[in-house]
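testing teh design pipeline on a random one, pls ignore if ur not involved
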């Protein structure tokens, strides 16, 4: 076996021909047929197939014996359940008509309650809640494992709502119309069968629906490309087509957004037609039909105010004669964007906010004459309110918030000019306030108590130099009195994809199960994320993906150089796109780590478009069915780059049978190949919960207990 110490000198596993010869499952023919022919575990891609489920049962038996048989498991499970079901948590609020709505899960209601109260009652320590839907009771009555996936209610009174329910936690949902005044589902109301729908209310009797309308109406990824107007009483077959994309479209499916003002009046209907994961066309639906908007292909739409579209440009763009850098927040008249005159009709200022080099626009809330912006500043949150002064620009008012915390914009009430604001940090439990956007002030509402003891640890931020010299920020949460001798058991978390940012966040299960036991937690803000805007994300796209892996390895080496930890005591965790990161990290740098939790992962990157809904991510990774793309993807795809000669750490791979976003075949095949090559590993596949793994706190507590039992075995024992 090749020692992990020997591999330290290998900067990337891609280079040396001698090493490449030890990869028996890396096909020389990278065509789809060649990749398929070299795959000896294709049967595991059949979700409910007999061979696949036999593999799952055998793997689960072995994993559960090792994890639930650990003497720490039951303590971990009980502690995780205690924090996940704690009644001291802040009930996450949304505006619901003239009151407040909330979806709540606890020990007595693990499936959850959708409920409401008044704002005055919500402010108190003991709000008086009225249950609208008891998901547990509904599941029992109908004999279906319903998982709550949200409610979309029609403004301004919000008494009619579209309720999304998932069977077992899948992304695909059924949709039913609900009346909050009677607290019942509407007899003969809107009802859609299971699917990955994109739905918006147009008026009380009309929905704009993108869904599966029958054969030939879904893209390769299984998402809709046709929008229809569905009138009350009509079947989907009777709906009227409003817009049609193309079956070859990429991304997550066409959708219609209905933008309203504070009184609930429709300001604009805009169709988003994704061309790939990040590029899209936008079409403005008017009485004259669909009108294409003159927007950059990469743009994030936030709302409409006074006929002006508020959006972020996600690539450098020139409007009229003025250049706008990627990441700039703008507002331009729909008439100007639609007519494409290439000159400004009005004198109104178009730039709302232009981030600096270490800043990014994280979230935006649009009101009738103001825009609230959450900004990440070196991965720390701040809030500003910009008022529309027409040709006089967008004067900024800064809202005072604590330093060094993550700031999140919650639900908004455009009619009253208010929005919820959350604040949290690694050692700071969440607090909730209500912003009055006209006064630019925050009224405190609720503060959660500590769900673990934060006094033992401190938070620090450092930077590591990556392979190309770029400095990569990361946070360290460590014991105050820790000896810098490399002995601390440490979890390194990363994601690095899809422009998703990871500012400091309160993770009570991690604090209780890991920090209180003396562990260290490190969060790496690597490229591919959105911490520093679109450029930070786009630096690691497609053929540049290796940079994200290099960034992660650089952080791992830096924390070892600082004496925080050592390869023996360092483990990594990632899920979904983070599964690409962790699986590649193990195959490229097995010497750096002694543990890896690889959850709900993408791993077989040479076949991922063939596993639903993989083709929607081609804009992020490239298309391995194209020879040039296959060449660079094959350089890191962990499934094909496993070697029987390399000493990998004992990894823990886990996924979910009901995951219809990232196919369970990725995790299954990786585990099967590890097994075939004689590498020690654990594989566990849950049968419910979906990609989000949040079906209920009971299952989630077991999930976290398995994770931390494994990490304790590898890093603490």
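output:
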């Amino acid at each position: 076996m090749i020692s992990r110490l020997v591999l330290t000198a290998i900067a990337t596993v891609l280079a040396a021909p001698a090493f490449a010869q030890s990869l028996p499952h890396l096909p020389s023919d990278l065509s789809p047929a060649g990749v398929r022919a070299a795959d000896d575990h294709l049967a595991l891609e059949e979700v409910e197939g007999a061979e696949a489920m036999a593999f799952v049962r055998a793997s689960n038996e072995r994993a559960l014996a090792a994890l639930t048989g650990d003497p720490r498991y039951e303590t971990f499970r009980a502690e995780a359940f205690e924090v996940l079901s704690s009644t001291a948590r802040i009930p996450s609020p949304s505006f619901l008509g003239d009151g407040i709505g909330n979806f709540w899960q606890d020990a007595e209601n693990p499936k959850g309650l959708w409920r409401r109260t008044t704002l005055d009652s919500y402010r108190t320590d003991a709000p008086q809640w009225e249950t609208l839907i008891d998901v547990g009771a509904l599941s029992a009555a109908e004999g279906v494992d319903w998982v709550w996936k949200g409610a979309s209610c029609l403004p301004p009174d919000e008494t009619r709502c579209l309720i999304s329910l998932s069977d077992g936690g899948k992304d695909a949902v059924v949709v039913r119309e609900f009346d909050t005044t009677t607290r019942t589902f509407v007899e003969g109301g809107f009802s859609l069968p299971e699917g990955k729908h994109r739905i918006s209310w147009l008026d009380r009797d009309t929905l704009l629906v993108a869904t599966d309308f029958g054969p030939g109406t879904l893209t390769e990824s299984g998402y809709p490309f046709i929008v229809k107007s569905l009138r009350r009483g009509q079947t989907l077959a009777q709906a009227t087509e409003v817009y049609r994309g193309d079956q070859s479209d990429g991304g997550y499916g066409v959708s219609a957004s209905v933008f309203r003002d504070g009184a609930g009046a429709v300001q604009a209907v805009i169709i988003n037609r994704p061309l790939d994961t990040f590029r899209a066309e936008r079409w403005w639906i008017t009485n004259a039909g669909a009108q294409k908007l003159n927007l950059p292909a990469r743009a994030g739409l936030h709302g409409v105010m006074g006929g002006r579209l508020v959006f972020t440009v996600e690539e450098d763009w020139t409007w009229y004669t003025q250049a706008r850098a990627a990441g700039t927040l703008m507002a331009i008249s729909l008439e100007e964007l639609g007519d494409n005159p290439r000159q400004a009709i009005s004198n109104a200022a178009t730039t709302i906010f232009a981030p600096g080099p270490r800043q990014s626009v994280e979230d935006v809330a649009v009101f009738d004459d103001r825009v609230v912006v959450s900004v990440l500043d070196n991965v720390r949150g701040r809030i500003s309110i910009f008022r529309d002064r027409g040709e006089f620009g967008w004067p900024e008012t800064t809202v005072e918030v604590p330093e060094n915390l993550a700031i999140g914009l919650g639900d908004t009430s455009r009619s009253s000019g208010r929005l919820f604001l959350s604040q949290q940090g690694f050692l700071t439990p969440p607090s909730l306030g209500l912003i009055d956007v006209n006064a630019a002030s925050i009224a405190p509402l609720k503060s959660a108590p500590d769900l673990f003891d934060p006094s033992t640890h401190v938070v620090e931020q450092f930077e590591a130099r990556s392979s190309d010299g770029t400095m990569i920020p990361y946070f360290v949460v460590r014991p105050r009195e820790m000896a810098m001798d490399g002995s601390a058991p440490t979890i390194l978390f990363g994601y690095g994809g899809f422009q998703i940012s990871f500012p400091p966040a309160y993770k009570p299960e991690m604090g209780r199960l890991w920090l209180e036991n003396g562990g260290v937690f490190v969060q790496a803000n690597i490229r591919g994320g959105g911490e520093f805007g679109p450029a930070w994300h786009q630096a690691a796209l497609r053929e540049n993906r290796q940079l994200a892996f290099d960034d992660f390895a650089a952080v791992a080496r830096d924390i070892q150089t600082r004496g925080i930890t050592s390869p023996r005591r360092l483990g990594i965790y990632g899920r979904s796109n983070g599964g690409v990161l962790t699986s590649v990290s193990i195959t490229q740098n097995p010497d750096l780590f002694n543990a890896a939790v690889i959850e709900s992962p993408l791993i077989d990157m040479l076949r991922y478009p063939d596993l639903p809904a993989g083709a929607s991510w081609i804009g992020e990774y490239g298309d391995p069915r194209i020879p040039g793309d296959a060449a660079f993807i094959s350089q890191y795809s962990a499934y094909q780059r496993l070697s029987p000669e390399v000493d990998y750490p004992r990894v823990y791979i886990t996924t979910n049978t009901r995951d219809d976003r990232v196919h369970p075949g990725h995790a299954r095949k990786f585990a099967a190949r590890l097994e075939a090559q004689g590498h020690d590993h654990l594989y566990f596949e849950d049968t419910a919960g979906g990609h989000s793994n949040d079906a209920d706190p009971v299952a989630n507590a077991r999930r976290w207990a398995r994770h931390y039992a494994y990490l304790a075995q590898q890093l603490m024992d």
